[in-house]
Amino acid sequence: MEWNPQTLQNLSQCFLNTLSPLPEPRRAAERSLSEASDLPNYGLTILRLIAEPSVEEQTRHAASVNFKNHLRSRWLPPADSSALSPITPPEKEQIKTLIVSLMLSSSSPRIQSQLSEALAVIGKHDFPRHWPALLPELVSSLQKASLVGDYGSVNGILGTANSIFKKFRHQFRTNELFLDIKYCLQIFTHPLEEIFTNTGSLINSASSTNIKPLFECQKLCSRIFFSLNFQDLPEFFEENMEKWMFVFNRYLSSNFPALESTEDGLTLVDELRSAVCENINLYMEKYEEEFKIYLEGFASAVWTLLRDVSKSPSRDQLATTAIKFLTTVSTSAHHALFAGENVIKEICQSIVIPNVSLRDEDEELFEMNYIEFIRRDMEGSDVDTRRRIACELLKGLAANYRGQVTEVVSHEIQRLLSSFATNPGVQWKDKDCAIYLVVSLATKKAGGASVSTDLIDVQSFFANIILPELQSHDVNSFPMLKAGSLKFLTMFRSHLPKPFAVQLFPELVRFLKAESNVVHSYAASCIEKLLLVKDEGGRSRYVAGDISPFLLQLMTNLFDALKFPESEENQYIMKCIMRVLSVAEISGEVAGPCIGGLTSVLSEVCKNPKNPTFNHYIFESVAVLVRRACERDVSLISAFETSLFPSLQMILVNDIVEFLPYAFQLLAQLVELNRPPLSPNYMQIFLLLLSPESWRRSGNVPALVRLLQAFLQKAPHEVTQENRLSQVLGIFEKLVASPSTDEQGFYVINTVIEYLDYGAIAPYMTGVWNALFTRLQNKKTIKFQKSLVVFMSLFLVKHGHAHLVDTMNTVQPNIFTTILQQIWISNVKLIMGAIEVKLTAVAATRLICETPALVDPAASKIWGAMLDSLVTLVSRAEQERAVDEPEMPEVLENVGYTAAFVSLHNAGRREADPLPDIRDPKQFLVASLARLSAASPGRYPQVIGENLEKANQAALLQLCSAYNSRIV
Amino acid sequence: MADDGSAANRRDPIKSSVGNVAGQRRRQQAVTVAKERRESLVRAKRLCRVGANGDDDDEDPHVENEMLIDEDQPVLEAQTSKAVEELKSAVLYQGKGGMQKRVVALRELRRLLSKSEFPPIEAALSAGAVPLLVQCLSFGSPDEQLLESAWCLTNIAAGKPEETKALLPALPLLIAHLGEKSSAPVAEQCSWAVGNVAGEGEDLRNVLLSQGALPPLARMIFPDKGSTVRTAAWALSNLIKGPESKAAAQLVKVDGIVDAILRHLKKTDEEIATEIAWIVVYLSALSDIATSMLLKGGILQLLVERLASSDSLQLLIPVLRSLGNFLSVDPKAMLTILIGGKNTEESVIGVLAKCLRSEHRVLKKEAAWVLSNIASGSIEHKRMIHSTEAVPLLIGLLSTSPFDIRKEVAYVLGNLCVECAEGDTKPRIIQEHLISIVCGGSLPGFINLVRSPDIEAARLGLQFIELVLRGMPNGEGPKLVEGEDGIDAMERFQFHENEELRVMANSLVDKYFGEDYGIDE
Question: Is the pTM of this model over 0.80?
Answer without folding.
Answer: no
